[in-house]
Structures are given as structure tokens and as C-alpha cells.
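hiii, so i know i said id send this last week but things got crazy w the move. better late than never?? heres the sequnce for the chain we talked about at the cafe, plus the structure i predicted for it. fair warning i was half asleep when i ran it
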Amino acid sequence: MPLHHYIEQYFQNNPQARQLGVPVENPPIDKRPKVLNIEELEVDLKTHKIPIRIYTPEEKPPYPLYIYFHGGEYMQGNLETDDVSCRLISSLSGVKVIAVDYRLASTQPAPAAFHDCYNVTKWVVEHAKQLDGDVKKIMIGGASGGGNLATVVVLKSIVTGDFRLAKQVLHYPAIDLHDDEIKGSEYQSRMLYNARYGLDIAKGHNSLKHEDPDSLLFLSPIHADTTLLAQMPQTLIFTAEYDPLCDEGEMYAEKLKEAGVDVKLVRFDGDIHGFMQRFPGSPDYMRGYDITSEFLIG
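okay and structure toks below
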């Protein structure tokens, strides 16, 4: 279907955003979705500390816990860019959301972000009861580059046996970092939409790619062994029609299904990468949060 008029009009008025990206324009605090409590903490990883933001809903404990990774340098992401996302998910689902402010490649090269996300997830699992969480309902997710980090954290946990997660949510994730091609890629969506609607995947790839031999297995989950993928938890994947990452997200969903994983794939036609953070006027904006919330509590 055609690009949603609301989004097309934005790019007509802001043509520079096609290459530079679409900034997040959060409303004032008093206009954002309400949650019972928001708390800022730091997880001490011995060598450094990682800030986290905890969103507590009005429901009574124990809470399902949802660990969330923002889009990082794929989408100029940080805790603030995804604050409304976390508020909406927590308020709609009654789940306690824990947003992780992992180190970005601009300050600490990859795989620092991956290690941060894995170690903070492990910390949450180990401290679930102190967080008033239900230890049997610890879930993980993220958007864009954060979606990559979420699913590779799950993949590593399967290999190490450190912990088990109940579900994963991947909003328009980056799945294949080994393939740098645009025109020659097997993923046609890259050739069609890269750098046309605010995302240049070459820049995003560079923020997560590395040559660390101990972490290479977890870089591109679509290439993981089927026996590992078969152990993935119940999965929700969103793709957007005009997103250069659309094809690899859908191929990953298919590969998980073939491995026997319970997967729900939702393509949002007429939308672009990052629409749930950047286009609240999109017809599918709230639909995305409703589906996510239903999946988390279902």
C-alpha cells in the first residue's frame, strides 16, 4: 500500500530527514502516558555502571518484567527517545518495564553494548524478587538495533545456560549484520528503501559490528544454528513495509518458525522504520502498542 500520507507529508516538508534521520519530539512530561512510578537506578557491573529506568504500573506485584533496549545509534536512540514507548507498554500491559541505557559505539565500540545488555539482563534475572517481579515471567525486547541486542542476548543465554527468558519482542529489528550489501543484498527491502525514509543501515551496522571472536556467534542471529534457534522463547516480530530492515526481519521470523518456535509476525503496511517512536500520528501507532501489550500478558 502507499506510504501513509502523514509520513509522506513529513518527508516532503523535511527532505533532509531522509538521510539524517527523524528526530523524536517527546511531549512535555505532564502530557506523556501515566505510570504509577518511574525510578532511575544504576546497575554496577564492577568495571562500570549502567543506568536503567524502571516503569512501575498501577497493578499490584509480583509484576511480569520486561527488559527493553532502545534503538541506539540505528535510530539516535536513548532512554528519552523511547520514554513514551516504555510508558505506553507498562500502562497498557501492567508489566514492569526496565529500560537499559547501554553504552553506545560512539563512546565505547562494539561489542560493549552487547555485553552491557547481557549483563544487565542477568542482573535483572538475579534480582527479580527484589524488583517485585515474577521470576517465571521475565521478558526481553527492543526496537531496531535494540531488537538485535535483545535477540542476541537470548541467543547467548541459550548457549551459556545462565538464565531463561519467557518471551522476546522485536520491533523492526536488525538481524543480519554480516551482510553489508545494499544493492547486492538478498534482502530486497534494502535496495528499495535504504536512506529514503530516515534510516541508513550502513551507519547502524557500524555501531554494532565488531571482530571479537568470543561474540561473533551472536552478531547475526539469522545465521545461528537451527538447534539454538529452536530453543528461542515465544516471539513477536514487527516489520514495516518501507523499512530497509523489513525483509531480514521477516526471514528471521520464518527461520524461527521452521525451527519450531511460536512466532507472531506483524507487518505494518504503509509504515517506515521507527514509526512507533517517531510518528504518533501514524494510523498504526497505537495498534503496535496494543499488540505488544497483549503479547506480553497473553
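btw The first strand starts at residue 37 and ends at 44. thought thatd interest u
miss u guys!!
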